[in-house]
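User: tokens in, sequence out, please.
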């Protein structure tokens, strides 16, 4: 009997699987939330001290706000265009937008760096 079949056929395995998920959830959810907040803080710090490569002005918190607004509009348009509540996978490519010249930047979390969107190979 394969592992997948054993897990679906055995009530004991199902019980322990559900028990593990219930016990792990109070630990994993806060860890995920902490990781997300930490990532957002690193991005905000980076944007606050980075000048735009196009116009030379500092990006600042305004750049993040503009990118968030554009992302929210894109998600809303995609949800309105899709039948029912089915929306395919969406990947956010713009994390900061220069408020002065409209230059778009993509954030690479692992390297903690921003790169102009038009230079990123997708």
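Assistant: Sequence out:
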């Amino acid at each position: 009997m394969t592992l997948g079949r054993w897990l679906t056929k055995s009530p004991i395995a199902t019980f322990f699987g559900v028990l593990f998920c219930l016990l792990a959830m109070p630990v994993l959810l806060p860890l995920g939330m902490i990781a997300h907040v930490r990532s957002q803080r690193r991005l905000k710090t980076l944007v606050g001290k980075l000048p735009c490569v196009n116009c030379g002005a500092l990006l600042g918190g305004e750049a993040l706000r503009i990118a968030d607004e554009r992302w929210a509009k894109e998600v809303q348009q995609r949800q309105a265009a899709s039948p029912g509540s089915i929306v395919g996978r969406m990947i956010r490519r713009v994390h900061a937008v220069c408020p002065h010249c409209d230059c778009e930047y993509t954030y690479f979390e692992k390297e903690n760096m921003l790169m102009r969107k038009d230079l990123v190979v997708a």
